[in-house]
Design a protein that fits this description.
Strand content: 5-15%
Number of helices: 17
Family: Belongs to the bacterial solute-binding protein PotD/PotF family.
CATH superfamily of the largest domain: Periplasmic binding protein-like II
CATH architecture of the largest domain: 3-Layer(aba) Sandwich
Largest sheet: 7 strands, mixed
Distance between the termini: 87 Å
Number of domains: 2
Subcellular location: Periplasm
Order of helices and strands: HEHEHEHHEHHHEHHEHEHEEHHEHHH
Helix content: 40-55%
InterPro entries: SBP, Sperm_putr-bd
Function: Required for the activity of the bacterial periplasmic transport system of putrescine.
CATH class of the largest domain: Alpha Beta
Pfam families: SBP_bac_8 (PF13416)
Length: about 375
């Protein structure tokens, strides 16, 4: 073999090796909420695309926002909630999506994306992953012991001292989220839930302080297992989280049928409830932009969106996926509400800096009981 041929073969081998290494090095760094995806979906994404998923979990929008504002997060896809999404767009820490790289957007549910546009005008930056409501989760048996056949689909359960006090002995958690709790209290009081008026905020605070002494803990992740284990009996929580707790309780009972089933339920209050959106976005300095688009597009594939909704008991924004969602989830009106209930759901908008300070100060007082 000539020296020239040897060099040519060597060069080809190097090129092939380099190409293989590059393919192996394809990665997407994702920062999402805990317990918020079917793990098998991550495996199938890597198998089908060759892109490795480095998956980190977060427990608050505030932590995510701090990372985004500081820059150089190293993440390619993150999942903020609606109010934070609007702030992050305003702070120019996200990049517009290249929708040509997300062809599965053709399956987007218009109703959901129209509502999401409240926070992302023109739907330029975000693709909704899941949407949810904030309502009441409860232990069915313990609720019946304390309030009999009283309907649980009312904010009276958690905002009337004479009622919530009956649940104190079996444990009550509220979301550690003023963005969810304060507007819910305003709605209950007949005030505009998106009010930024300090007088309205004060009225909501007074109501929440009147029931705060019965709340065991304010938290945003522990209550799933606490409900499932029977450690608590009443929460203000997110729809999908409560239904995940219900699934876990059933699974635990199936493994040890000699132990009583912890039967859980979720109710959307008839007075109206907050609807929220958790969306995929790409940070402005994302290191793997093409892989980020590929990940988002995969999550919008109808069969994949259906798999995640079935696993999570959360509603997704993919209309076509409803053909494949487990009927137990799809037909559950606490996940996919009927039109009458949908009409009573409300959205809120971010506060300006001055109101946000008042909001934060008010929430601290509510939690500490001062």
């Amino acid at each position: 073999m000539s020296a020239f041929k040897k060099l040519a073969l060597a060069a080809t081998a190097v090129a092939l090796f380099a190409g293989h290494a590059m393919a192996q090095d394809k990665v997407v760094n994702v920062y999402n909420w805990s317990d918020y995806i079917d793990p098998s979906v991550l495996d199938s994404f890597t198998k089908e695309t060759g892109i490795k998923v480095v998956y980190d979990t977060m427990d608050s929008n505030e932590v995510l926002e701090t990372k985004l504002y500081a820059g150089n997060t190293g993440y390619d896809v993150v999942v903020p909630s609606n109010l934070n999404l609007k702030r992050e767009i305003a702070h120019d820490v996200l990049q517009p999506l290249d929708k040509s790289k997300i062809p599965n957007l053709k399956y987007a549910w218009d109703k959901v994306f129209t509502a999401l546009a409240t926070y992302d005008p023109g739907n330029k930056y975000a693709v909704d992953y899941m949407w949810l409501t904030t309502g009441i989760g409860y232990n069915v048996a313990k609720a019946k012991e304390r309030v009999g056949d009283m309907p649980m689909n009312t904010w009276d359960i958690v905002f009337k001292p004479e009622i919530i006090s009956k649940f104190k002995d079996c444990g009550i958690y509220f979301l550690d989220s003023p963005d969810d709790i304060i507007p819910s209290a305003m709605r209950y009081l007949g005030l505009p839930p998106d009010s930024k008026d300090p007088k309205d905020i004060a009225k909501a605070a007074a109501l929440l302080q009147s029931v705060g002494k019965y709340v065991k803990k304010y938290h945003s992740s522990e209550y799933i297992n606490a409900l499932a284990n029977g450690d608590i009996c009443l929460v203000i929580g997110w729809s999908g989280d409560v239904l995940q707790a219900k699934t876990r309780a059933q699974e635990a009972h199936d493994k040890t049928p000699d132990k009583p089933l912890v039967d859980l339920a979720y109710a959307i209050p008839k007075e109206g409830a907050l609807i929220s959106f958790d969306s995929f976005v790409i940070p402005k300095d994302a290191p793997h932009v093409d892989e980020a688009h590929a990940f988002i597009n995969y999550m919008m594939r109808p069969d994949i969106a259906a798999k995640n909704s079935t696993f999570l008991s959360y509603a997704n924004s993919n209309l076509e996926s409803q053909k494949s969602i487990d009927p137990k989830v799809l037909n559950d009106k606490s996940v996919y509400p009927d039109d009458a209930t949908m009409a009573k759901l409300f959205t809120t908008t971010p506060a300006d800096a001055k109101v946000q300070k008042l909001w934060t100060r008010t929430w601290t007082k509510i939690k500490t009981g001062q």
